[in-house]
Structures are given as structure tokens and as C-alpha cells.
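Notes on consecutive records. When two proteins share a document, each keeps its own sequence and its own C-alpha cell line. Never mix them. Below: protein one.
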Amino acid sequence: NGMALRLSHPEHKERIQQTIAKIVKAGQPHNMKFIDHWRFSPLTANGNGFRVMLERLDQLQRTVDCALPGRGLCPVNPKMRRDFINSVIEHIEVTGIDGLMIDEVEFHTANLCGCANCRKKFTADTNWVMPISEVSKLLDPKSNSPMRQAWMDWQQKAIGDFWVELRNAVKNVKPDLVFFGYTSLSGLCHSE
């Protein structure tokens, strides 16, 4: 529908849902299946992306070395996850779609995400404490330190945990919903 960047265009949500629901309803008698397409995290300069970014500063990905905000939302942030999952469930209920492709569920670079939620979860899961310092060699992308490896492994697990939580929440609404995913930036494995 040309509006995969839903988070940058919240003002179009109702219209999009109504249109998709009409299309799905028209196709169901012909045994057609419908897959919608969203992008999870990137917020763009078009639409209301900047406004959404400012409204959700507490949910943005942060650099590991100095906590600067990025342009994407953090998949570990509990509020972001809850809001996103609720949006997906509402969308399924309103539209009746059979599948959902969700792009960019990721940490956008190897230097993301160093937000408070990621730091706390990383420490709880690994017993490592992530330094906040632009001169630390422990998280340098060229480093082979045990902490760096633990960080990369944890990022993969965190993204996997996101998908598991989303699947578990959706199966109560539509157990046979099909999920697809795509990443154009870093995906589960960073290429540095």
C-alpha cells in the first residue's frame, strides 16, 4: 500500500486499516490471502517522522559509546514493544490480514543500542556491564574481546526474543498468521 513506514505516518492509520479491510473482505470469497508490509523501526524525515521521534525520545536507539539518539526505535524498549505488539494485534483484528512482513527489526548499526533498557537487559543476561565511553576498546567493532562477542551474541538473542514475544501475542488473535522479515541495514549479524 506504499505506507510501510507506518510509524512515520500515524495520521493515516485509520484510513489504511479501512482500505485493507475492504480489500481483504473482497478477496476472501475467492480464497485469496493477504499479506501486509510494515517497517518496524526507522523513522524518516517524511510524514510525521520527526514529530514521532520527538514524542518517543525515550524509545529511540542510542549509541553505545555516548548515548546519542539514533533514528530508529529500540526493539528491547518495553514500552515500544508493548505499543508495537498492540498495534499489530489491532491491525490484524481490524483488517483480517493473513500475514505480515515486518522489515528492519534490528539494531541499525554495531554501535546501537546503548539505551538504559538494553544496558540493563544485557547485564542481566550476560553479567557484563557495558562501558559508556567513546574511548573504550571493549566494544570497538574491530575488537575481538569477550565482551564484544557477548554483545554481538546478545543483540541476536534480543532480536529473536522480540519475534518470539510478537508471535506469542499474535497467536491468541490469529494463530495461523504468517510472519516475514527483512533487514537492509545490519540484520541479526553485523558486517563490520
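Protein two starts on the next line and is unrelated to protein one.
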Amino acid sequence: GWRPSGRGIAIPDPSLAGGAPRGLWWKAKATGAGLAPVVHFYLDGVRASNPRLGGGRLFDREGQASGRGATGVGTFALADGKITETYDGFVSTNRFTAGRDASGTFFQVGTATFRPLVPLSAKTLAGEWKSSSVVYRFHPDGSYASTLGPGTWVLDGYLLLISPGQGAPFIVVAGMAGEMLALGSGFYYRGR
């Protein structure tokens, strides 16, 4: 499976510095199984969709850009209320707005709304999290119980290593998406 390279650009906490997005942001995408988080990286004119992390707080730009086919790595520029993104041979220009609402800070690219993906802490992760098909109970001691069986977990910034008692360990990108836990390709809601 995939392993972090240990290399990359430091990922700042998500913000709108001077009106431009910085850090990791998410938008919701409809899938056959419901909604899934789509994570984007923005920093100083660099953008990437589904960023490949080199570590818990590192974006491995070179590693992702060296992949075959569409990589999602490119550039962005803001001017006159518009954002122009260039990646994978495409150039798209859309309306760009940013602000705050009852759910917090956001920006919009066309009709897509992006919100900050906030790094997890062990305290934030601890407790019960539910999706439509899986329940995780993360314990502060690094163990978990789930509807898939027990195991252990290790958190490093935006990376969560999950080691099931039965099966191969795997690493997912994880963070707080508002009140939800964005874990890999799914959203989880706080249980009891």
C-alpha cells in the first residue's frame, strides 16, 4: 500500500490569507453511497485535488505530480473576483467568493463550497463516530472498536494509521470537516 514519503511542502492551518485559500479544504461530492469528502490543497499559487501527503503535515507535490495520468497538481490565481486553476492540461476560470456563515469560514469556486479541513488531535478523535455502514469507537489509549472489529490507531497530523486486529494496516487522510470526521472517502458523525 501507499506510504508517506517523508518529503513535501509544510501544510499550514487552513485560512484565507489576504483572501486566498491556504492549507487543506474540503467540499462534499455526491456518490452512490451518499456524500464523500473531496480534499484540495492550496498554497501560494499551488493547488492539488486529493493531495498526496508526504507526512502528517506535508504535501508531497513532487510525488503526486510524478504520477501517471491526471495528477490534480497545478496552479491557481485570483483576480477580479475569479479563480483560474490550471492542472492536467485544463484551465478553468470560475467566480470566487469567500466569507463566513453560521458554519464558519468558506470559499466558493463557482457553485462548489469549500470549508477548512482541520487537523485532528487525539482528544478530538476519541469517542464514537458513525457512517451509514460503520461505527468506530476510538479510545484515548490508541485502540479502537468498530463494527469491522477491533484494532489500534496512530494519528500524525492529517494522517491516521488504522491497524485492524485482522487484516493489513492502512493510512487515510483524516480531519475535522465542521462537526463531521472526514476519514478517507467518507464522512462520520459523532455518536453518543
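For the record: The mean pLDDT is 93.
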